[in-house]
Design a protein that fits this description.
This protein is mostly helical. It has a two-stranded antiparallel sheet with strand order 1-2. Strands 3-4 form a two-stranded antiparallel ribbon. A two-stranded parallel sheet has the order 5-8. The longest helix is centred in the middle third of the chain and has 33 residues. α7 packs antiparallel against α12, α11 runs parallel beside α15 and α13 packs antiparallel against α16. It is globular and about 90 Å long. The protein contains 16 helices and 8 strands.
Length: 510
């Protein structure tokens, strides 16, 4: 094997045929891990920003503008990932060219704060409020493009044998946001329509999420100040040591990319992200139609369901690094991640003999011949609206047990899929700067959330549950077949545990 070189290019002799041992000083390792924790918090915040308002957008829109349709609602849902889709590769490229992730992150957080502040002000807008909500959700998505920066940094600031664990913790941070968000939204239902603040702004169950995001966003900017955060890049040093290269660029250029594997993983990530579309875009209208829930019941029960599901995901994220040491990552991904999620969607195809409760139109004529209107949550108008969805009369109802079990199977599949795809993807890219590639992967996930709401909500509104979940099931089978065929090119072993001596090296170099 010959002699190895340390990160300064100094040759180190082999000892008894074994690789020489180096170590990272405790203080530098502590600083590196502190920077990772700060990035984890940023990922948590972006998930919180999405999840805390996710279940409330449709009823809030319906309150602000009762004439709004589910079609326009799906466009509003899609606006968030559209912003993320456009800006993820751009901010990833910016990160690759920057010496620190601080400026790209802070710029995105400023956009996040402004967008959420405007969300709390929608009650003040009299005309075109639905278009303002559309614009606000777009820029919230622009802000969330910093997820690509965070994932790229995690890949740079971890050694290969730390990578799966670190990405699991990153995903855990995001899922924790999905736990806290819906639970806070469910808690905020106790506020109801709330009260007016000085200046005419409202503090209600709909606007409270925006206020929370503003406060957390400001705190996030503070902890990215130089006093608290410094960049660290250990991944390239590890590979320089392993390969005996003289420079970082020489190191990552020596590893040729397998583009077939890379694009297959990106497509698989698209499908895994598409799995979230069901609850994100269709969960609220589905439960209101199929189970005749009121707005308040929908916010409450969907919030609790998402919160419990996210707690289950947390457990899976905690176990995944250990399980990955026992079995091949690609096998876990295919059979415990993707396949389980597919089974969950099969359960959404209704088979019962009874139909969902039919909702009447709000308009009715009383005994005196006067045209009257039912209240929004009147029992007569709750259920499946046959006037806009004719299939309500002849398609079987989706049962609550199938809905809940199918949801939790998706909950099991999602954390496994999203973590292991990112881990395998990062290891495939090697020590090269990953900002742009991570941005492209995140953009693929965003694209599924752009296309998904429009296609899924449109399909559900026009054709109903059976046809919609039938084609979704078939679509989600594709990455299983694709990755199974390519699995022999995805079996990567982590190098032996190599501790790199960073004591005499500037952690900002290379």
């Amino acid at each position: 094997m010959g002699n190895l070189k340390d990160v300064n290019g100094n040759a180190e002799k082999m000892t008894n045929g074994n690789a020489p041992k180096f170590h990272e000083s405790k203080s530098e390792k502590a600083e590196r891990f502190k920077s990772l924790y700060i990035v984890y918090f940023t990922l948590f915040l972006q998930s919180l920003g999405l999840a805390i308002a996710m279940t409330g957008i449709w009823p809030y829109l319906n309150k602000l503008d009762p004439s709004s349709t589910k079609g326009f609602y799906s466009i509003i849902v899609a606006a968030n990932p559209l912003g993320q889709f456009i800006f993820s590769p751009l901010i990833g490229f910016w990160t690759n060219k920057s010496t620190s992730i601080r400026v790209p992150i802070i710029a995105s957080l400023v956009i996040f704060i402004i967008s959420n502040a405007l969300y709390t002000s929608l009650d003040l807008i009299e005309d075109g409020v639905k278009y303002w909500m559309l614009i606000i959700r777009f820029f919230t998505g622009v802000a969330s493009a910093n997820i690509a920066v965070g994932r790229s940094y995690i890949s740079a600031a971890t050694k290969v044998d730390e990578r799966t664990h670190a990405l699991s913790m990153a995903s855990l941070a995001q899922v924790t946001g999905f736990i806290v968000g819906p639970l806070l939204q469910a808690l905020f239902t106790t506020i109801g329509d709330g009260f007016q603040l000085p200046g005419g702004m409202m503090f209600s169950m709909y606007t409270a999420p925006g206020w929370v995001n503003v406060l957390f966003g400001a705190a996030n900017i503070i902890i990215f100040m130089p006093q608290f955060f410094q960049d660290h890049n250990i991944a390239v040093r590890e590979q320089m040591f392993i390969q005996g290269k003289e420079s970082a660029k020489e190191t990552w250029k020596s590893v040729k990319l397998d583009h077939g594997v890379i694009w297959s993983l990106i497509f698989s990530y698209f499908i895994v992200a598409f799995n979230l579309v069901i609850l994100e875009s269709l969960g609220t209208p589905l439960t209101m139609d199929q189970f005749a829930f009121s707005r308040k019941e929908t916010l409450k029960w969907n919030g609790i369901l998402v919160g419990i599901g996210a707690l289950v995901s947390c457990i899976i994220f905690g176990l995944l690094p250990r399980v990955s040491k026992m079995y091949k990552e690609i096998d876990i991904l295919i059979w415990a991640g993707l396949l389980v999620a597919v089974i969950g969607k099969i359960l959404y195809i209704p088979y019962r003999n009874d139909s969902p409760k039919i909702a009447l139109d709000r308009e009715y004529i009383d005994v005196n011949g006067t045209v009257c209107y039912y209240e929004d949550d009147h029992p007569e108008v709750l259920g499946c609206p046959v006037s806009t969805q004719p299939w309500c009369q002849n398609q079987p109802a989706l049962g609550i047990p199938e809905f809940v079990i199918g949801y939790f199977l998706g909950v099991i599949g999602y954390p496994i899929g999203v973590t292991l795809i990112q881990s395998i993807f990062s290891k495939t890219l090697g020590a090269r700067p990953q900002g742009t590639w991570m941005g492209i992967m995140l953009a693929a996930g965003s694209m599924s959330r752009i296309v998904g709401p429009i296609v899924v909500v449109g399909s559900y509104t026009s054709f109903g549950t059976g046809w919609t979940f039938g084609w979704i099931t078939g679509f989600m089978m594709i990455p299983i077949v694709l990755l199974y065929v390519l699995r022999h090119r995805l079996l990567m072993d982590s190098p032996n545990n190599l501790d790199i001596d960073m004591v005499n090296n500037n952690p900002q170099s290379a």
